[in-house]
Amino acid sequence: MGGAFAKHLRAARYTVIGYDPAVPAMQAFRRLGGRAARSPAEVAAGARIIITSLPSPRAMEEAFFGKDGIAKGARRGTIVIEASTMTLELKESIRRRLARRGVHLLDCPISGTGAQAAAKDIAVYASGDRRAFNRCRAVFDAFARSTYYCGEFGVGSKLKFVANLLVTIHNLSTAEAMVVGEKAGLDLKLLYRVIGDGAGSSRMFQVRGPMMVAGRYVPAHMKGEVYQKDIDIIRAFVRRLRCPTPLFDGSIPFYAAALRAGRAKEDTAAIHAVLRKRARLRGPVPGRRGG
Length: 291
What we know:
By secondary structure, the chain is mainly alpha-helical. It has 15 helices and 8 strands.
C-alpha cells in the first residue's frame, strides 16, 4: 500500500519522504524519486502530513512509539493519516497518546487490495477531526479514487470492518462459483466473462476471479496470513455487538484451511484451491494456460 501511495503522490508532484524496514521497498521508493528516511522519526521531522500503513499491532507500536518512532520526530500540528486495519481500541490508544503531543491522528482505513491501490482504485473511509481531514483533502485525492469523510474518530474503521466482512464472504462465493462451474464442465474463462457481466458479479469476483481462473494465487494482492488478522478483528467486533453473522462465520474455516495447507504467503484467492480439493478436482484449472 505504501509504495502505491508514494507512486501516486509523486505523480501529483508532491515531495515524498518515506520509510520502510524492507530494503527492496526502499529501493523501489528511491526509483520513484522519493526521499528515503532512516526511521519513522526522520519521516515525521520532515513532513507535516504522514501516512501510515502497517501490518500488525506490533509494527504499529514500533512505528509510532519505538525508539525512533513517529512520536519522537513529529511537531505539534502534524497530521497522521492512519490507513491500517486495526482494532478500534488500538487506534484510539494511539490517537490519545499522540494528542498529548499535539499531533492529530485520523482513522482512514482503505477499501481495496494492493493491486487496486497501484491502479488508484481504492476508497478511503476517513474519520476524526474535520479540520485535520480538510487539510488533507488534496493528499487523499492524489492517491485514492474516492474519499469519504465519515464522522468522528473510529467510524472509518467500523465501516472497514463491514466492508471486509463482505470481502470475506464474496471471495469465498467467487471460489465456490468457480468450483461449481468446473465440476459442471464449464471453461472458467467463459464463466468469468459471462457471469462478470451479470447480476451475480461482485467486486471480489472481478478482482480475484482471474487468479482463480488461472489457478495461480501469486503475487498476492493480500496474503492469507495478513488477512487472518483482519478476520480476527471482525470476529471480535461482531461478537462484542452480539450480532449474528452466519455467512461470515461459515467462511472462516476455509481461510484457516488455506493457511494449514501452506498457502499463507499466497493471495486469499487460494481458498479456491481448498474448495477444488474438497470437490475432488485435480490437475490444472480449465482455462489455465497450458491446461
